[in-house]
Amino acid sequence: MQELQTFISEYLPWLRVVGLVLLKASLIVVLGWYLARFLSKKVHKILHDRDEILANFASQVVFVVLMVVCAISALGALGVQTASILAVVGTAGLAIALALKDSLSSIASGIILIILRPFKKGDTIEVNGISGKVESLNLFNTFITLPDDRTAILPNRNIVTANIINATKSPLGRVDWTCSVGHGSDIERVKEIIISVIYSLDNVNRDREVFVGINELTTNSIEFIVRFWVKREDGILKARSMMIEQVKKELDSQGVQIPYQQVDVHIKADECK
């Protein structure tokens, strides 16, 4: 009993001080986490209506920066010298930067993409041979939904150095198609059929000229090239498919020959013996 009283009298003040220090550090971490989360949500809410990608990126940056400050403050509350912390963080940061140069490059590239803003959420872009709709951009990657609903995750550093084709900047999209008919076909009549079919489609833009002309003369056909513009929101692929179907029906009804691939096989007489 005497030993217990001695232990309590000797170590209770020390335990009280340690407990208060740990409590202070814990409060800094907990309150800092809630503050970082609160401010990141506020930033996201303020910027969301302007640009969702900017809102997501900025909120992540705010959260990470505040949590780093919170961690340094908590270590300072535990008695660790702030100058020492910053020196260690600087040294560790240099080592981490060398080890994770690709990841840090993606962060820097993400910042560049946010500043230049070559695309926004919902834009259809083509980059590095991948075409799809932009879903989000975070500190490291850009997420693109492909036409078959798969998701492509591209590092920001690969996007910022690539040629980006943004197909959403214009509300119109061009349909390109080639059509072949027999050499005996009336060229002007074929052009009239194709043009009339195109103008019969609802989503064709009539402010842009429809072009139908001869692209090439092959050994067994006359090849036409067809170009016209449609509203992108109505679907370019849908308009192209409808146009091809109607042109085929009209050419068949007018008796226009559509050549097919032929393979001529020559057999020598002595081979048949």
Q: Can you tag this structure with a few keywords?
A:
single chain; 273 residues; alpha+beta; five-stranded antiparallel β-sheet; three-stranded antiparallel β-sheet; 7 helices; 8 strands; rod-shaped
Topology:
Layout: H1 2-48, H2 52-77, H3 82-99, H4 101-116, E1 124-127, E2 130-137, E3 141-145, E4 151-155, H5 156-160, E5 164-166, E6 172-181, H6 187-200, E7 211-217, E8 222-231, H7 236-253
Antiparallel strand pairs: 1-2, 1-5, 2-3, 3-4, 6-8, 7-8
What does this molecule look like?
It is a single chain. The chain is α+β, with helices and mostly antiparallel strands. Helices cover 53% and strands 19% of the residues. The protein has a 5-stranded antiparallel β-sheet. Strands 6-8-7 form a 3-stranded antiparallel β-sheet, with helices on one face. Helix 1 runs antiparallel to helix 2 (52-77) and helix 6 crosses helix 7 (236-253). The longest helix has 47 residues, at 2-48. The protein starts with a helix and ends in a 20-residue tail after the last helix.
